Amino acid sequence: xxxxxxxxxxxxxxxxxxxxxxxxxxxxxxxxxxxxxxxxxxxxxxxxxxxxxxxxxxxxxxxxxxxxxxxxxxxxxxxxxxxxxxxxxxxxxxxxxxxxxxxxxxxxxxxxxxxxxxxxxxxxxxxxxxxxxxxxxxxxxxxxxxxxxxxxxxxxxxxxxxxxxxxxxxxxxxx
Length: 175
What we know:
Strand content: under 5%
Number of strands: 2
CATH architecture of the largest domain: Alpha Horseshoe
Number of domains: 2
Radius of gyration: 23 Å
Order of helices and strands: EHHEHHHHHHHH
Number of helices: 10
CATH topology of the largest domain: Leucine-rich Repeat Variant
Strand order of the largest sheet: 1-2
Shape: globular
Largest sheet: 2 strands, antiparallel
Structural class: mainly alpha
CATH class of the largest domain: Mainly Alpha
C-alpha cells in the first residue's frame, strides 16, 4: 500500500488529536490517494510470525520425563528439558494443567535454582501457547505474584520477565 507523505502526516495528526472520523472515511482517504510527483512511502503490513509457523507437540516427549520427588538437581534437569522443548515458536494445544500444577509445586517448595527454572519454563510455555494456556495459568498467577515479594534478585528478575513478556496470555478473555 502506497500513501502520499503529506496525506500520511495529515492522517497521523488527525488520529492523534481525536478519533472524530470513522475508520471507513480514513480508509477511503488512504485508498483514494495514488502515486503523485511527491515522494511516496511504503507501509509494510505487520504479520504475526506465530500464525505462519506450524505447531509442535511437546506433550509426547514430556510423558517420558516424569517430575520426581528426587534431588533438586534432577528436578532442575527435568524442568530444563521442559523449558528447552517449550522454546518452540508455536506449541500444539493440549492438557497442560498437570504440568502447571507440578511447576506450581516446584516454585513453592523447591530450591531457588529449581524455582527459577520453573518460572522460565512457564514463560516459554506461555509464549508458545499464548491463549491456549490461559486456563492453566489461573493456577500459576497467584503463586507468581506471591513470589514477587521475595528479596532474591534472580527470582524477581525471572518473575518480572515472565509476567511482562506474556501479559497477552495472562490477560486473555477466557480466564
